[in-house]
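Table S2 (continued). Query chain:
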Amino acid sequence: MSDLQVKTKQEGELGILAETGEVRTEIAFEHYAAARALGDEGAKHLLVYLGAEVFMDTASLATLIRRDGEIKKAHGRLVLFSPSKAVRRVLEHCGLGVRFLVAEDEEAARALVAAV
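Corresponding output:
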């Protein structure tokens, strides 16, 4: 059983995905499907809230990398915002701190998208 909760919101070309709980292999597809659905509905950019993540595994990172690549091909931006300490450690440990745009909060994430 997973305690992952995924909430999405769309504002024109901007999609916002908020997750809480553990993001692990068994439910990584759930994360990807939610992120992809926002794109299918017209969101060119994606903001991903990761402030409530208590755990993230490499399969989950792979879903973010995959979606980031798709969004970049469509000339959009994926921005991670408010990452928890656990997520920051994983990103740094895996050398992905430079791969993703990371913002301290939603306002800063929106500013990064607006700068496109």
